[in-house]
Design goal:
single chain, alpha/beta, 3 helices, 32% strand, globular
């Protein structure tokens, strides 16, 4: 083969119409991701984008009819997972701990729309 995949550029999660402010609150205010501007040609579609780490992005796209992803999910790595757990508790965001994989510290949360998100401690 003369090609190779290099990295994940972005992940998109779906959300219902009119939910951009909820997405901003959850992903920016609670999780601390920086919102980035969508290209002008895509703004009319709705949704909101966030920067994740160095060069990856999280896109929240509007989908009607909307159905949350309950099994398929992104998995993010976080530094200091115990601090994030405390932060989530203080913000009343429930999480589920998962110890099924030995030596992997991870939790699951749901965004305001019911999409599953895995978070793995570094």
């Amino acid at each position: 083969m003369n090609f190779s995949f290099l990295k994940i550029d972005h992940i998109q999660l779906a959300a219902p119409a009119g939910s951009e402010d909820q997405a901003r609150h959850f992903f920016s205010t609670i999780l601390g991701l920086a919102e980035i501007e969508k290209p002008s040609a895509l703004k009319k579609r709705g949704g909101v984008w966030f920067q994740l780490g160095g060069q990856q992005q999280l896109h929240i796209g509007i989908e009607e009819p909307f159905s949350p992803a309950k099994k398929a999910h992104p998995a993010f790595t976080v530094k200091n997972l115990s601090s994030l757990k405390d932060h989530l508790q203080n913000k009343h965001v429930p999480y589920k701990e998962d110890t099924l994989i030995p030596d992997v510290d991870r939790i699951y949360i749901e965004d305001p729309f019911g999409n599953r998100i895995e978070i793995i401690g570094e």
